[in-house]
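Deliverable D5.2: sample structural annotation.
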Amino acid sequence: MTEQAAEKPIRIASILFERLDQIDLTGPFEVFSRLTNCSYDIVAKEIRPMKDANGLTITPNQSFAECQDVDVLHIPGGPGQEDLMEDEETLSFIRDKASRATFVFSVCTGALVCGAAGLLRGRKATTHWGFKTLLPHFGAISVDSRVVIDGNLISCAGVTAGIDGALMVACLVRGQAAAEQIQLLMEYAPDPPFNCGAPDVARADLVQSAREALEPLLSRRLATARRCAEKLGIVS
């Protein structure tokens, strides 16, 4: 990457909605806010304070109508994501911006919103482990990986994986050295106290109880995914 390309202005927009998982937005923001020559906006259908899934208030600074074309479109996930899957105003906004973006970046179940917008057909993608079975309903090829890159689509697994994905975006737009410096300055060196952060390493009883806790949401999302698949003409 040339020095000129490395310093090309970049526009990034993250979508905000009620009951998102805030770290799906704020984790990547911590990375993106450190990129040089980068403008960053939090966009929503309307400018008003919104609460994340646990009550944290976040306020967008731009409405969909005000948002210009972007280089990176970032779609977080969270419980409120289900409503977006059938919100045509949001889906139209995503399709429009994605058609001219250099990269589309989904975190956690933000991938399901991308799917509902028709962006996953024939693409490799990932999402939170509890909802990967829904990806084929959108024509996606489910991949068991923390970060998946397929062309200009970058998807990552659940919640904290958004930081990993954002660092990969930083690498793609500014080069590996810049991304590495951001990781160092963030002191992002995960060393969790317990080895249970994924189903393949957690105890079976923990995985079972987590699946039971997710089952009501999975059932609702499955019904929504099937309706979306029908609208998209995808046989699932």
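Annotation notes: The longest strand covers residues 38-44. DSSP finds eight helices and eleven strands in the chain.
The annotation will be released with the project's public dataset once the embargo ends.
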